[in-house]
Amino acid sequence: MAAVEIDLGKLPFDIDFHPSDHLVAAGLITGDLLLYRYNADSPAQKLLEVKAHCESCRTVRFINEGRAIVTGSPDCSILATDIETGSEIVRLENSHGAAVNRIVNLTESSIASGDDEGCIKVWDTRQRSCSHSFNAHEEYISDITFAADSMKLLATSGDGSLSVCNLRSSKIQTRSEFSEEELLSVVIMKNGRKVICGTQSGTMLLYSWGFFKDCSDRFVDLSPNSIDALLKLDEDRVITGCENGLISLVGILPNKIIQPIGEHSEYPVERLAFSHDRKYLGSASHDHLLKLWDLNELVQESEDGVKNDSSAEDSDNDGMDVDDNIPKSSKGSKKKNVNKGPDPGSSNNFFAEL
Q1: Which residues are CB-neighbours of 281 under 8 A, at least 6 positions away?
Q2: In what order do the strands lie in the sheet with 256-263?
Q3: Would the pLDDT of 184 be above 80?
């Protein structure tokens, strides 16, 4: 069912689609940023290849309505690149005190970044500065998602916990108990009532909103393969990318594997993303391939697979637990060896030239 295959030549760490055009960007282990124009009827056309970072390019996001691409790296820098010219708009050399591992879009004027030592920062593109900083975890930030209605950031970490950061109060609202395994991915589903986390063991942990201390349910059918990527299709279905190369459509409450979508041989699938029109699902893997899967057939085949099932919901209410006493991990903290720079705090002028 793969419509387009793009051979990136090297290991990709992240992909992102342009918000309104048929463009897709990839960040590589070499530090290169690639930009392609894709079309179902012809081979993808490489538009841009830029040496964005001296170390790997771990994370990639389009910003400013797609006029620029932001990338993050273990060199601790965040770079904004013009998609038309490939030229550097601005580079913040010490955006974090550790390797930048994840960048996600929040609103039209803000992004969040997470590093290898558990710090999350929010960048305001209008105020042109770092607006929030949270020391939320003890190890690397693996994924971040945003609950826009309540202005809360949810993040997963290699320390085995899920955090909730409140942008209104600029405080870490709560953090889950420590799991015995790394949490690798996170999505919000069921109209905000459930938070789903993918883990290193292949178990999916389901948390009820407001009850984040411990999960309310576990789904083990994807074990023992780690769930490296989660992408919400709708409120009842999520797409998973696993280390065995399989991409699957999974129903949530009732929990079941609906159908396989595709595969990257036996190579881990670490990133999933939708094209702007949701016609394509993009997947990136260790086989050096970026695959674009046509979702039309997938949605038609599975639209009756999972429906809202009130009997499958648990009885948790919508109250939010607030705990200012953030628990400490009982596990040893194994920090990654990275070049550190000074923490620039809220004085960063990252978007001054955007």
Answers
A1: 231, 239, 247, 261, 272, 273, 274, 275, 292, 293, 295, 298
A2: 227-232, 237-242, 246-251, 256-263
A3: yes
